[in-house]
């Protein structure tokens, strides 16, 4: 009897946290501040339509 390995999905929140923590280490800015900025930039990017 072998257990099947469970595949874990990477969430957007995990990606934001990973990018923010990496950037925080490099820049000295807090993780929360960078994470907030990433989310704000994402919201602004969604508001921009693509040219046709």
From TrEMBL:
It comes from the Bacteria. This is Uncharacterized protein. It comes from Pantoea brenneri.
């Amino acid at each position: 009897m072998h257990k099947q390995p469970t595949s874990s999905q990477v969430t957007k929140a995990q990606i934001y946290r990973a990018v923010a923590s990496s950037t925080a280490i490099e820049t000295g800015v807090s993780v929360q501040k960078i994470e907030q900025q990433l989310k704000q930039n994402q919201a602004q990017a969604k508001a921009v339509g693509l040219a046709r």
